[in-house]
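ugh ok fine here u go
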Amino acid sequence: MSLDKMYPEGYNKGMEARPRTLFKYTTPTGEIPFSVWFSALRDGDAKTAIAKRLRRAEAGTLGHCDNVGEGVWGFKIDVGPGYRVYFGQDGPVLVILLCGGEKHGQQRDVNLALKFWSDYKKRKRKELNQ
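structure:
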């Protein structure tokens, strides 16, 4: 049976289980959006669940991820109002944490993640060409 028939549209079948390095995206001004968001979370259960999910990703198990477009993916964390962590994958083992948010602000957060991912790729290309 073909993999295309086994998995629903958008499933992360291309992201094999392998240890990964997590890196937090930094804006050109030095801000780390993921850290700012995570530090501001008041829900201890959510922080624990998010940290656990990130440890699993580092160990090689990304689990279910939603493709939100242009190379950006999102972890869904089913705690409280429903949290999301957005990331891009740079090569086979490097995961770039872009930002996070709650379900009710999802479209705003996706747009922000897309902007951050675009900036990351543009600056990386520029670095490689120098």
